[in-house]
Amino acid sequence: MIRVGIPLSLEYQSMHEKECETYRCKVVDYTHNQIFVDYPLNEKTQRTTFLTKGTKLNVTFIGEDKAVYTFLSEVIGRTIQDIPVIQLTYPGDDELEAVQRRNFFRVPATLEVHVAHQKNQQEILKTLTSDISAGGMAVSFQKRGHFQVGDLVAISIEFPVENKKELIELQGEVIRVTEPIPNKVGKLSLQFINLDKKVKEKLVRYTLKRQLELRRKGLV
Hints:
By secondary structure, the chain is mainly beta. It has two domains: 7-99, Pnp Oxidase, Chain A, CATH 2.30.110.10; 107-216, Thrombin, subunit H, CATH 2.40.10.220. Helices cover 9% and strands 50% of the residues. The strands form two sheets. It has a six-stranded antiparallel beta barrel. The chain has a six-stranded antiparallel β-barrel with strand order 10-11-12-15-14-13. Strand 10 (112-117) and strand 11 form a beta hairpin. The longest helix has 20 residues, at 197-216. The two termini are 30 Å apart. The mean pLDDT is 84.
């Protein structure tokens, strides 16, 4: 399951900090019970981070089967393998926890988004998301009859990545339409399709981080 070159997302919750620190790194080498990774980059500061021995981490990655996996790990040392690397414990492929597609951490989120029919991109719905996951999202709208189930759409999201906003473009399909009624906006449910792996990794990292934040606040 683990392979050389696979990007990992590391999450660390300090006892003295309210916010969870997140890092990214890549697998340099591995054995049946250890993983060797390059020095992690802090996603907020964009600086290389030194993780001390004994640091406990929650590790997430996307496998070659495009499923999301997670496991608990601990820093057990440092060594040199052409480059300086950090040694992490690895429970083995059989002990990985697979995140089911339907539980892709759909979390409440308010992000600016543009949605347009792929065949007619001159008609653009400019709106906000109500929730998002690595597999899809829901947005609000006010004009009836604008979209139908099965429509293919082009999506542009103002997405928070590494402490800044980045425009992410992807494709989607309308899977549910709740038409607006007086005093209540409509809701458009979209499923992402043909996701680029790097975009999917950004979505997974964001939704995992949001879920942890909401859990700490007792909201999920």
